[in-house]
Write a structure and sequence with these properties.
Length: 320
Amino acid sequence: MKKKVLVVGGAGYIGSHMAKRLSTAGHSVSILDNLSTGFKHLAKHGELFIGDIGDKACLKKLFSRYKFDAVMHFAACSLVGESSTNPEKYYINNVSNTLVLLDVMREFEVSHFIFSSTAAVFGEPTYTPIDEKHTTQPINPYGASKLMVERVLEDYAQAYGLNSVALRYFNACGADSDGELGECHDPETHLIPLVLQAASGRRKSISIFGEDYETRDGTCVRDYVHVEDLCSAHELALQKILHEEGTAQALRYNLGNGEGFTVKEVIETAEQVVAEDGKTILVEHAPRRMGDPAVLVADSKKAELELGWKNKTHQVERNY
């Protein structure tokens, strides 16, 4: 059954890919984005409204115009380092503004919500891969702000009947297989596009932040999950809460490929690829960044079993 879905942050990286997936599946898509980090040209798979999720008047006007079946939230501030130097920005946008959005949803009786969360809610892992039972002790304001919203969603399920799914990404990467959309951040902060920019000459070098972590080569280990696989999980999560009746739930799922790669391994792989064209990648060494855990690798078994999600881009053999 086709639905009317509001995608907040739909002019950003993951949000724009999600809007395309929903639109391609026949759903009616509206996009709300303040364009602080998003780009108008990426919001091509839905009707774009320029506005902020913290602007209640704007939201009420939009919800009055359309009868939304569900809301997908991609409108968070998401830079770990910035969150440590400017936590106010993160608590206002990621927590306070999300509460405004949820308040308007309640007023207009929209009870299905998909939330873009993060592996940063876990902090320094005590074991890997990290499953949903792992303790949540974020070590930066970004992760703390996301965990606060997850707690809000739990309480809202019990008190107001809000059905929600929080999807905890590990490291989003990749681009639309049609070549229409991709990573487009200004400034760019994700490792893979930064490495490729260094290879193409768009930037002078790539920095490695810290080489004294307790990992196999001293650099951070991260679990990379393709953006199209993330969007697949969102679509399956939406189907689950739309079709399951009964007591409202606040569900949580980890999304990753279950295998970690160090910063050096990513750079070395890119070097092997660009060497064929005679290009090199200049590496610079920098101190650790505040709030960076040494290892983040996901156990996504719960999403696979309960949502039927398959990580199609990078598959790791599992036995269960």
